Amino acid sequence: MNVELILILLLVFVILIFGVQCILQLGLKIDAGYVLGFSIFFDAIGYFYKQYIPVNSLILLVGAPLLLVGIALLQKPAILRDMFSNGGLWLWVLFFGYCVVSFAWASRNSSGLSKELLLITRAVIPGLYTYIVYKRYGKLSWTVVALFGLAYASTHLIFGQYNPEYPGRLTLPGDNPIFNARISLMAATVAIWGRNIPWLIRLATLAAALTSAFATQSRGPVASFVAANLLILAYFLYKKYKNGEFNKLKRYTAVLAGAVLLTAAAAGLYSDQLGQWVGSSRFTVLFSQSQLKGDDNFLGRMDLQIKAFEVFQDHPFFGSGLGGNTPPVQDEFPHNVIIEMASELGIAGLFMWIIAYLFSLWSARIHPVLMVLLIQSLGCALLSGDFGYNYEYMLIAFVSLVFVPARRKGEAGRIEEGALSYYRV
Length: 425
Known about the structure:
By secondary structure, this protein is an all-alpha fold. It is built from 20 helices and no strands.
């Protein structure tokens, strides 16, 4: 470690201490959006971190927000009691506890422990950090989260490369194009559903995120993004219909009709170019069943999932133990997190996971941005997922739980600047 790096680290430490003193003395409110945005889009920061500091970047992910979390707990220790009374958190504790118990019958060379630690580091700890900061200050701005997403998508577009390992797919060095697409599309979802985001930031984030995602030519994340957004849109439109609120949407009819007409006109005008682009990209299989059935990637994953299902049939109740059906025990993971958990944790583990996930989804039921993120990130894990590396749904699941005690205790005055109201689309 050279002298310049030591001086930089000392400077950062001094700035942090100064910031903490300002927060304590001035009584400033910390926006939980900074913690959430930092956690979701951390890999943009991690990319630059790894260029200069030869230490695992996850240390920064866990350590950087720790001062803010510590301040929140010192100012309001009752947050810990609040956490222990949250039934959703206990459901996830039960699930992770069962994962640990499953090591008892897992293969000796299983990597289950590293998978669980990765999930805890990338999802559980950041999710709890966001939970604690929000509970103390009652503020979560989706504008801040969108800005982090814009920074990530821009980093991917500027510093991404096309390499022989992933031909024609823009990838950040050392990353995977599917991962880059997953994270960029989370930024797009925040830009679409986040409340009170200035239109300039909203449109810039959406444009950069979609450009970034499509540049990876990753089919699964795009399909999950479209399906999740349409599903939640249909859900909230149905709720509005039941509540007789469609009359309030009439003012948007002309705008919507104009947008549809402009889109149709643009598609017709550039139909040849669009056809050539789709035909030469990896997205072609999404529009052709015959090409999908002949796609080597699709066929390979189907074979892996069939093998995983056979393991589940051999160990239906308790599974083969966490890590028992993924590398290094097997050559490859099944690319479907549900099938993977079924084969490794059995019916017992899968049941615990489903209950905990549905509880988190229920907790987010009046916040569309969280619901879409939960379903979208799970969709990615179902199409090309791994228990440890597909951590995004778990992070959002823990963040969603922050609203359970608030509703039960009647704390209606909390400020959640970015979540879309149940009564607005």
